[in-house]
């Protein structure tokens, strides 16, 4: 039986960062990862640094809405080459309610015959966690279903009493650790089917993602570094609370072959990190957005205007 871990947590809570850390541990190198993203273009596949090729992207719909059968199919396709890995991590989209996918994993005959009942590991971040829990049923269900709760970004802030109270209300039984203290072995303790079923029955019903929009801006030509900096500043300033998530790989004119990785969660847009090389053959700039009422054309025109101004200034 293959051990499975479902790693969930709201947008930008640190799932990909933590999974990349686990995969760097030689003990966990033989771990296959199934990534699901909400949006047009999946980037986590490229952002999870992994030396083997067992990172699979589930179609970039949302696990809780459209691709449940994909999950069973993907796990069984992986199982056909089980000599290449020992365990599986499924990273859910930050916007996913994990309930329907857990139900699939507990009821699909083939999956049940070959995989353990998954352990559910939920990340909650100290900076935006309370807002996410207050505003999104998906985030509350992620916490309610956890076997283990991992608190991330404790280097930026201590968990506030309000956040701890919300976790107590939603899932008092799950042990809590900071991500910095979490031993990777906690990912692969199996859930008890009875306990997981009880938690599943207690989750909130949610049928729509509301006013959430997702789009991806692409550019074939590398951007001047200054244009990227100005774009990120303008987005943080103008879109702040309406920006649920931004992430991307950006070709920079001054750094050929070394793409910038960019991340934003609400008003917090991190300074870019640079990779030594492109993670795949696709070297186009791709910036994915998940927003509430920030239209694609606003960002696209903003980028065009900034880029034009920066190029003019460079030519002068
Ligand atoms: N300071 C700090 N930043 C973190 C920590 N964990 C993650 N981050 C940053 O938070 C941002 C989002 O991290 P990801 O790992 O991509 O988050 P995610 O949950 O996979 O995001 P989605 O897949 O979009 O839901 C990135 O800029 C990370 O570098 C942490 O413990 N401390």
From TrEMBL:
Residues 212-307 form the CobW C-terminal domain. GO terms for cellular component: cytoplasm. It catalyses: GTP + H2O = GDP + phosphate + H(+). Signal peptide: none annotated. One of its GO terms (molecular function) is nucleotide binding. The keyword Isomerase does not apply. Keywords: Chaperone, Hydrolase, Nucleotide-binding. Pfam families: cobW, CobW_C. It comes from the Bacteria. Zinc chaperone that directly transfers zinc cofactor to target proteins, thereby activating them. Zinc is transferred from the CXCC motif in the GTPase domain to the zinc binding site in target proteins in a process requiring GTP hydrolysis. Belongs to the SIMIBI class G3E GTPase family. ZNG1 subfamily. This is CobW C-terminal domain-containing protein.
